[in-house]
Each structure stands twice: as C-alpha cells, then as structure tokens.
Amino acid sequence: MTTTTPLTSDLDLFSDEALTDPYPHYKALRDLGPAVHLTRHGLWFISRYEQVRSALGDWETFSSGRGIGLNDGFNDAWGSALINMDPPAQTEQRKLFTDRLSPRALRPVAADIDRRADQLAADLVTRGSFDAVTDLAQDLPVHVIMDLIGWPTEGRDQLLDMAAGWFDSAGPACPRTAASVPKVEALMGYLAEVVAKENLVPGGFGWTLLEAHKAGQIPVEGAIGLLAGYVVAAFDTTISTISSSMWLFARHPEQWDLLRSEPSLVPAAFNEIVRIESPIQVFSRTTTREVDLGEGAVIPAGARVLHSYGAANRDERHFPDPDRFDIRRNPVDHLGFGYGNHACAGQGLARLETHAVLKALAARVQRIELTGEPVRALNNITRGFQSLPVRIH
Ligand code: HEM
C-alpha cells in the first residue's frame, strides 16, 4: 500500500489480492486514522471498532437511505429493500421480518434443525471425505431456511449463485461488479415471477410478505425487496459461517478438542467464528452532515463511507490479540451482525443452524483435516469459500 497524505490511501480493497487476505490492509488502515479516504474508489473507510459501532448507531448521520451499495445502479434497483431504508419506513417494514424470526417464533423449528443437522453429521461421518461447502455448509440454508420461507423446491440451487451475485453487485465500479449484473437481473426477474404467481407456500415467511402486499401495506417492489432480504441474506452468510468454522477448527485442533470436551462452548465458538471471519465484511452509508472523527479525519457531508465489520472485529484497540482464534473469548459485542437499527434480523436463525451443526459434529468427530487447498469465493462484500476439501475422523 502506498499512501499520499496521512489520511489517504490508494489501496484497492476490492482487488483479488486484498479480498484473499484483507487483514494486513485493515490493520494498516486502522493505524492510519479513524477514517481514511480511499482515492481509488472515492470512498471514506472506517475500520476501528469504536467508530464503526458509533456510525452504525447513528443512522441520522450515517444514512442507509441512499443505499448501502457502492454504485448507483445497485442502490436505485434495490431502493425498496429494508437494508436500503432509514426509519421510520425501515422500522415499520422490519417488523415483517422480526415477527417471524424472533427467538419465540423460531422455537418450534429448533428441533427440526437439530434433527437435520444430526442426520447430516451422521452421513458425513460415514463418508469420511467431502467438500465442507457444498456437502455440509449449504445443506441447512438450502433446505431448512428455504422451507421456512416457503420457497418452491425447484430452483433453490440456482438461488445460491444469484445471491452471491447480489452481494458482488453492491461493489464499486470494477470488473467483478460488472460481471454480477446478469445474475442480479436473473434474481430480480425470478423474485418478481414468484411474487406475481404467488408461488410460495402458504404460512411461510415469504407468504407473510405476499399478504402484506395484497393488503396494500407494501408495494410490489417492496414485497420483492423484502423477499430478497430473506433469500439473499440467509444464504451466503450462514454458508460462510459454517464453512469458516470447519476451516478454523481444522487449523486449530486444540480448539476443536476444547469444544468436544465442553460442548456448552458452542454459542461462544459461534460468536468467535463470526468475529474472526465476519461473513459480511463491508457495507456502506452516506453522511448527511460533516463528521469530525478526530485525528484530522473530517468526512464531508454527502460522502460515501465504507464501514468494515470485518476490520472492526479485528481491532486490537477492542479485542486483545485479535487474530487469535479462541473459542473461550466469547466476544458477545462483536459487530459481525451489525449494530443499531439495521442489526441482522436473521441472526437467531443463523445461530440455531450453526449451533446445531457444531453440536452434531462435536458429538461424533475427533478431528477435522484439510485434504486439499481451500478455494476462496472472492466477493466484494462477503467472505467465504468456494470449496473446502476435508476429511473427518
Ligand atoms: C451468520 C449469518 C449472518 C450474518 C453474519 C449476517 C450479517 C448481517 C449484517 C452485518 C447486517 C447489517 C447490515 C447493515 O448494517 O446495513 C445484516 C442485516 C440483515 N440480515 Fe443478516 N446475517 C446473517 C444471517 C441472516 C439470515 C439467516 C437472515 C434471514 C433469515 C438475515 C437477514 C437479514 C436482514 C433482513 C437484514 C437487514 C435488516 C435491516 O436492514 O433492518 N441474515 N445481516
């Protein structure tokens, strides 16, 4: 990285190299100042824990209303998605999600999730070697979450690629963003068709959105945007968490031994995984006024600000020895699910699924071994794997 003035950098955080291993860059940018102007893409970057948390808690200054993507095409197309709104409209629409995803509402499905995870773990133990992304991590999101949404069985596999395209399409002007456009157009068309044909199982989460639309509570674009909130947000994020857990435990067998000897550490392990390998690395906001963050970092009004959950979760100012994977750390205040009015609406479900997988594997598996080179899924927003060959003993 070369810097020109103290709070300016020409680093390209969206290059293959930076996406493969962003952490040294995050550290350099955190050390540079509380906000750094990234000249390559005309963005301000906030990466320290304290400033990221404050920005997420202050929607009146750091607004989502002009979109959380880094290009106008994305922000215009998905203006009706919950994530791209400010209160009061966002508060109202968010209720449609939180009612169905609260811990109480999810209690009846917990047993099903545990059963499916148990069966999956038993099958994988019999197989021994498999791909932890396609054979393990994708299973619960594709089957359990899609069942809860009430998504038609056919077409679920296509959604995986389209959802990854959605995240990429939120990136800055660059070839990766451009390449995602056809996938996103296909996703938009697919969601519109499902809404128009009312092709959702009555009683599922998606059906609630359809009913709200039919009752005149939300326009058709609103129903499509909200439905995207389920199918997009629920896939890559949870798949990434489960894949990263396998990668981390394979590289830290002592932490796996600890989890096996104390299964009550599963919730703490989940928090540590989302902290250290945050599935969503960055999103953005727009400033509604000039903001002085100290140390000479003055962000003008109307600026596009990239905030990094991934960088904040590795900030040594907040988490001692942040690059160390330690399931006893239990970082309950990590920012991997965001913070404030947009904090993840589906985290209860992500928790249920990942807990179930970790519990089922810890009860059966002594050791997780990588059997080939992991392949990263490079994405403008998310961090995960395309393939992760493993053997379990
Ligand atoms: C480990 C898995 C997950 C992670 C790490 C994650 C992360 C996040 C983050 C960081 C945000 C905040 C965005 C912002 O600040 O603008 C968010 C929002 C959201 N997430 Fe998740 N998510 C996960 C799973 C899920 C699941 C399973 C669902 C749905 C069933 C979901 C639905 C949503 C929705 C609807 C929002 C937007 C909330 C709003 O704008 O008010 N997420 N998520």
From TrEMBL:
Family of this protein: Belongs to the cytochrome P450 family.
Record flagged with keyword Metal-binding: yes
A molecular function GO annotation: heme binding
Coiled-coil annotated spans: none
InterPro entries: Cyt_P450, Cyt_P450_B, Cyt_P450_CS, Cyt_P450_sf
Transmembrane segments annotated in the record for this chain: none
The name this protein goes by in its record: Cytochrome P450
Keywords: Heme, Iron, Metal-binding, Monooxygenase, Oxidoreductase
Keyword Metal-binding part of the UniProt annotation: yes
Taxonomic classification: Bacteria, Bacillati, Actinomycetota, Actinomycetes, Kitasatosporales
